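Hello, quick one for you while I still have it in my head. A protein chain has come my way and I'm curious about its shape. Can you walk me through what the C-alpha cells say about the fold? No rush at all, and the record is pasted right below.
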Amino acid sequence: MAVLVARWFEFLSTAAGVTILVILAAVAGFLIYSAWPALTADISELQAISWFNGDSLLGYILPLIFGTLLASIIALAVAVPLSVGIALFISHYSPRRVSGVLGYVIDLLAAIPSVVYGLWGALWLAPTLDPLFAWMTSYLGFIPLFEGYQAPARNVLTASLVLAVMILPIITAVSREIFLQTPRLHEEAALALGATRWELVRMTVFPFGRSGVISASMLGLGRALGETMAVLMILSPGTLFSFFLLKPGQHQTIAANIAAKFPEASGLAVSTLIATGLALFVITLAVNMTARWIVSRRSEFSGAN
C-alpha cells in the first residue's frame, strides 16, 4: 500500500510540474501567435495606428522597455536595503512580541491591492514629495537626474517610490525567513569567539542568506516589472530615453502602456500591444532564470549543508 501511495504521489508531482511547463509554453505560444501580425507588418501599417510613434516596431518598444527597467531598478535600489534592514531587525534584534507584530504588518502590506497603492501615491505621496522635488531641482539641478522638476510630482521617481513600497513586503518576508534559518551552531560559534551582534550578522547571517536575499530581490523585481495600475495612476506618460527623473512626460512602462491603450485598440493595434507584452514576458523570464542560476551557484550555503 505504501509503495502504491508513493507511486501516485510521484505521478501527481510530475504531472503538476509538467502542467506548469505546458502553461508557460501555452502563454509564450499565444503571445507569439497574437503578436505575429505586428512583428511582420510593414512600417506604414504600424504608423497608421493613432498612438504609434516609432520609426519601427522595435523603435516603439525600446523606450517602453527602458522606462520599465528604469522604474523597476530605482524601486529595487530603494526597497532592498530597507527590506534587508527590516528583516534583520525582525529576525535578530527585536523582542519576540515586536517581531511578531511587525512581521504581521509586513505580510499585510503584501495583501493591499495595487490600485490602493496607486491612489495613495497619486493623492498623498505626490503632493507630499512636491516640496522635496522642488528643493532638489533648485539646489541639485546641476545634476541632470534632478533637473527640470514640474509640479505635480507625476514622474518616474514618484512611481518608483510607490513600486518600492509595493515590493518591500515580498523582499522582507523572504529575507526574514532565510535569516531565521541561519544554523544556530554558526551563530553560537561566532558569539563564543567574542563577536558583537553586528559581527555575528556579518560573519554568519549574511553569508548564509546572500543567495536568499538575491532571490527575494529578483522576486521583487519581477513584481515591479509587471506592475500596472499603480504606475498608470501616477506616471505622466512619455516615450523617451531620458534620465531626467523629476520631469513628467518622459517615461512609460510596458504594463501601464498596455492598460492605457488596450480598451480602444483593435486589429493591428492589439497585435502591437501584445508584441510589447511579449517583450515584457521575455524580460521577466530572463529575470527569473537569472535568479535561479544565482541560487544554484550558491547552494553551498543551503541550510541542509
User: Anything to note?
Assistant: The chain has one domain: 41-301. The mean pLDDT is 86.
